[in-house]
Sequence to fold (294 residues):
Amino acid sequence: MAVYKRSYKVYDGPLTPTGSRFLVLSRYSAASLFESRYFTVFTVLCLVPALIGAATIYFVHSATTQLLLGMRLSSTDLINNVWFWGFLQSQVWLAFVMTVWAVPGMMTRDLANHALQLYLSRPLSRPEYLLGKVSAVVLLLSAITWIPGLLLFGLQAQLEGHGWGSEHLWLIGAIFIGCLLWVTVIALMAMALSVWVKWRIAASGLMFAVFFVLPGLGEAANAILHTQWGRLLSVPYVMTLIWTHLFRLPDRFIHGFNYAGVPLWSAWASVLSVCLICIMLLNQRLRAREVERG
Fold:
């Protein structure tokens, strides 16, 4: 039958609810990542520190196991806020590597293949598109950061008893807020760099430059201008400063990492400024049309 003789009808099947429509994009974005066998293996390896942490908590609470190994450890001396801080430090850097691996490819494919125009031609707005991409990354990174941290907190509270959990409820907020802040910053930064560069390798390289080269420029500015404000250019520095106060670390950490010269409010202002700049860059680049200049 010729095409012009076909009768077309309006689609009358089930519709995705408007409020959760962005989750369709999240689901398919996450599924595309796990098509890579290497990425799946790396994700599993990211959970190994959590298993080691759970084994450590069990070991310090098991008198029988310590007796068999000829050791004697006190849970109150080992499992504390410093221990959780150290565990999550390793997890957030694994999350950074995962972000550099996953996000640039996720974003550049849509721009290189002009898929963004197809997305936005559907009943999907730019904020919903961005929310769908961000939520996929945030959920993936949450699975290796604050979720294992809260599970280990629950295990420690259960085995320790004697009101340990109620005395350390503030640690739940430190774990959740600290990890979520880190995940949000690196996810937005990776997406903003990816949509402007439109080349996966270059976007990954820029992420490493922002985290490891830009702090060097800040230290050079400190040496030339005899100030401490150049450290605000270092995302790891300001994030660790915020974490130091969230986890109520001892004063030796503040002096050891030379955090005394930078006020806490400036670190929060630096992080929020980075997020705002990334959102502005995404807003400028995520358009339904693109002008090619030749």
Observations:
- The chain has a mean pLDDT of 83.
- The two ends are 42 Å apart (CA to CA).
